[in-house]
Amino acid sequence: MPLAAAPRPLLPLWVAVLTSVVGGVVLDLAYPSVGWWPLAFVGVGLSLVGLIGRSVAGALLVGFVFGATFYLIHIVWITRYLGVVPWYALAGIETVFMAVGSIGLTLAYRWFPRVFPSRWGSLILLPILIGGVWTARELFMGSWPYTGFPWARIGMSQSESPLAHLASWTGVAGLTFLMVAFTAAVIEWVRAARLRDIRTALPAAAMAALLLLVPAFPTSASGSLRVGSVQGNGPSGYFDERSRNDVLNAQLEASAPLLGEDVDVVLWPEGGIDSDPLANEATADILDAFSTRVEAPLIVNAATTRGNDTFNTSMLWLAGEGAVQLHDKANPVPMGEYVPDRWFFEALAPDLIGLIQREYTPGTNPPFFDVESVGVGLAICFDVIYDDVIWAGARDGAQVYMFQTNNADFRDTDENLQQLAFARMRAIETGRAVVNLSTVGTSQVIAPDGTTIDGLPAGQPGHMVTDVPLRTGLTPAVLIGPWLKLLLGWGSLVALVALGTAVAVLGRRDARTPAPEGTGVARRG
Questions:
Q1: Residue 411: which of 227, 231, 255 has the closest Cα?
Q2: In which element (H, E) is residue 427 found?
Q3: Which residues contact 518 (CB under 8 A, 6 or more apart)?
Q4: DSSP letter assigned to residue 211
Q5: 164: exposed, middle or buried (C-beta count within 10 Å: 0-12, 13-18, 19+)?
Q6: CB hemisphere CA count around 339 (13 angstroms)
Q7: More confident residue, 121 or 379
Q8: How far apart are CA 370 and CA 368, in angstroms?
Q9: What 8-state DSSP symbol labels residue 152?
Q10: Which of 49, 185, 312, 346 could form a disulfide with 127 if both were Cys (CB 3.0 to 4.6 A apart)?
């Protein structure tokens, strides 16, 4: 059987470019602050239809336009204090990755029907491949260069949708895969042009049922922890004017109503202390005194120095004992908390890079505290977007999560709401409650099912005293998540390479096969 012809473009190139622009805008609307989650499917669909039948150059253009439109809108909050250069730089590199990754999607659409020309192959297997290749691109962008930027994952758009529960089974990467595969299945159903044949709708219908009907994986109730959490709203931004200990004093003032309350632990946000309590005896004495007065251990955060290294450190602080457990941020933000290859970037933008004086070292200690026999999982600020940090806490025995963050550099933007969506998805993914506490907001206590238990308004000092539910038991997302990411990432790339190899082999075979007698030409695919 000769190799089937490659598919023709579904849209003219100029139309595909326009749909990519619209798709990028629509996809951003699926995330907070707008949060119209069904639009994620529309945005993905508009991206995919423009890639069908494209050349490599056409795929690069369409993918570039889609990526640029989406990222320039989605992370515009970077300009709040940092200006347009970091915004263009980060959006630019993510756009390039989106464009290059779009070639893989186009090749999947080109090669699959040539090797598997049956209608049912395109309806069932092709959407699975498309979902895998999209997810592989997303995983690569979330891990490179340096620690990557896994911020705008498709699955994370669903933190407040009825699909979020699937993350407890598959993790965020698996949810991305299922969403993209379903979207691709709908496109193939429409392309089959047999809408009256109900059988052609079955693959897409089965994926829809999977997305909507699978319940969240249950974890077991294990009591509660009474948490006092304090949003000080101090001058904690990088460019905020402040005197020594202004942030610490703001935290203490906002914590005053906790005195006399019966709490098991007091939580402060990232950067809630603006001096190193491990080296500054006066700061340590203040924490000791407050812990004694509130009659509870503290979970606090500050920049600390040990030897020649500086860390972004969370501490479990006990009165009279000091910091009895430490966790250092595992993934300091490149160009924010440290400058990789400083010599290179300083040559490009010396004034901007010169602003970043502190060089945080990545932490290696576990994201976990034992608080009077209660396991507490930790994530400091953007560490919440890294799967391995969250899963490590659960595997170490976390019964609840406490996420400390400082959003002061992005006040009044979508950044803090987008980060809150990550925290909400992590609660659902692990089946555990999350206390997400910011210096300036948005701070919330989130139940294991993603609903809000308690919260504070942004931009105001305040405190919460909350009986936070504890849970035990590991969800499939935690148990198999790393293996599923390997399968979706590398497995999809291996499948794509195998398809390309099959097309090349079959093409050479057809070129060598004589044409039927009398035609005078060789048969071509």
A1: 231
A2: helix 415-430
A3: none
A4: H
A5: buried
A6: 18
A7: 379
A8: 7
A9: S
A10: 185
Q: What is the DSSP letter of 413?
A: S
Two tokens at 362? 């990545």
How is 456-481 classified by DSSP, letter by letter? E-TTS-EEEEEEEEEEES--HHHHHH
d(CA 69, CA 99): 12
222 within 8 A of 473, measured Cβ to Cβ: no
Statement: the pTM of the whole predicted model exceeds 0.90? yes
Backbone angles phi, psi at 476, to 5 degrees: -55, -30
Amino acid at 384: V
Sign of the torsion angle spanned by Cα atoms 415, 417, 418, 423: positive
- Neighbouring residues of 73: CB distance < 8 A, sequence distance ≥ 6: 24, 25, 28
Burial class (CB in 10 A: 0-12, 13-18, 19+), 521: exposed
Tokens of 458: 């942004």
Half-sphere exposure for 312 (CA within 13 Å, toward CB): 26
Region of 325 (left: φ > 0; alpha: ψ -120 to 50; beta: rest) is: beta
Mean pLDDT of 76-102: 92
Query: What's the pLDDT band for 151 if we cut at 50, 70, 90?
Result: very high
Distances (CA, A) of 171 to 45, 101, 191, 484, 485: 22, 22, 30, 9, 9
